[in-house]
């Protein structure tokens, strides 16, 4: 029974792989670090390959499959950012595209045998904090001190509520992404731990389509959409 429990735990828990001692401190290398490294390397390689193909392509050449896919993806992201942010789209579409690619690939990395990095709150919280910093940086740049005095409107009595509302932004962004991805990771870990090997070749494949692809991509879209809405709310006229 103890062996089965350890197998179930190993299916979805963060595993410590190695200890490194630096400056008197112990640093643990976990499955999250490995997954993040693999996802980052994959994105860099993909960006370099697509960049070279686009640069080498001539106007009279027929675009290849990879180029067509990424041209459609870039066009779709540009249209999405423009539809939500309007004339401010050019300032933020590179950031939104980067976040969308990173979060999207991280969410579906479970298809390749990795533990999704976004199932670790230590990954989603920094993403929420980066968005939080960008929201208020853009707000201060646009509205100067009025960005801060808005916390006391329409009456100073509401300052605590307004402040809590602002602090809740990175928490809601990070917890929503973390909770949805972790729930799918836990479900798949339980399924792989409970089913026998002959069955695990069929049923889990169908569930991966929902938990990794459908749910993962939906959460990617929601994270990016809310990021744009929050930023646009601070910089709109």
Describe the structure.
The protein is mainly alpha-helical and 237 residues long. It contains 8 helices and 2 strands. The protein has helices at residues 2-12, 31-56, 65-85, 89-107, 121-143, 146-149, 159-194, 203-235, and strands at residues 16-22, 25-30. Strand 1 and strand 2 form a beta hairpin. The longest helix has 36 residues, at 159-194. Residues 1-10 have low confidence and may be disordered.
Comma- or semicolon-separated keywords:
globular, 237 residues, 5% strand, mainly alpha, 73% helix, single chain, 8 helices, two-stranded antiparallel ribbon
Distance, first to last CA: 63 Å
Number of helices: 8
Strands in their spatial order, largest beta sheet: 1-2
What share of the residues does DSSP label as strand, in percent? Answer: 5-15%
Largest sheet: 2 strands, antiparallel
Mean pLDDT: 84
Based on secondary structure, the structural category is: mainly alpha
Low-confidence stretches: 1-10
Order of helices and strands: HEEHHHHHHH
Query: Which word captures the global form?
Result: globular
Could you tell me the radius of gyration in angstroms?
A: 21 Å
Helix content: over 70%
Beta strands, count: 2
What would you say about this model in short?
The chain has 237 residues and is mainly α. The chain has helices at residues 2-12, 31-56, 65-85, 89-107, 121-143, 146-149, 159-194, 203-235; strands at residues 16-22, 25-30. It starts with a helix and ends with a helix.
Task: Produce the secondary structure layout.
Elements: H1 2-12, E1 16-22, E2 25-30, H2 31-56, H3 65-85, H4 89-107, H5 121-143, H6 146-149, H7 159-194, H8 203-235
Antiparallel strand pairs: 1-2
């Amino acid at each position: 029974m103890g062996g089965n429990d350890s197998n179930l735990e190993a299916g979805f828990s963060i595993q410590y792989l190695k200890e490194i001692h630096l400056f008197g401190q112990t640093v643990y290398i976990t499955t999250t670090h490995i997954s993040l490294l693999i996802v980052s390397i994959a994105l860099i390689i993909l960006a370099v390959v697509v960049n070279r193909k686009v640069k080498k392509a001539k106007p009279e050449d027929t675009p290849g499959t990879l180029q067509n896919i990424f041209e459609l993806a870039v066009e779709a992201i540009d249209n999405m950012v423009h539809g939500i942010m309007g004339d401010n789209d050019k300032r933020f579409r590179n950031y939104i595209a980067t976040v969308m690619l990173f979060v999207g690939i991280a969410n579906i990395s479970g298809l390749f045998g990795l533990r999704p990095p976004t199932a670790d709150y230590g990954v989603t919280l920094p993403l929420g904090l980066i968005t939080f910093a960008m929201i208020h940086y853009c707000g201060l740049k646009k509205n100067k001190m009025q960005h801060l005095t808005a916390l006391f409107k329409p009456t100073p009595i509401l300052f605590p509520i307004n402040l809590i509302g602002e602090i809740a932004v990175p928490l809601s962004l990070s917890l929503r992404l973390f909770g949805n991805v972790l729930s799918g990771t836990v479900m798949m870990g339980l399924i792989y731990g409970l089913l026998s090997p002959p069955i695990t070749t069929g049923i889990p494949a169908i569930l991966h389509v929902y938990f990794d692809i459908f749910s993962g991509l939906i959460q990617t879209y929601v994270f990016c959409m809310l990021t744009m809405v929050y930023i646009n709310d601070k910089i709109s006229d």
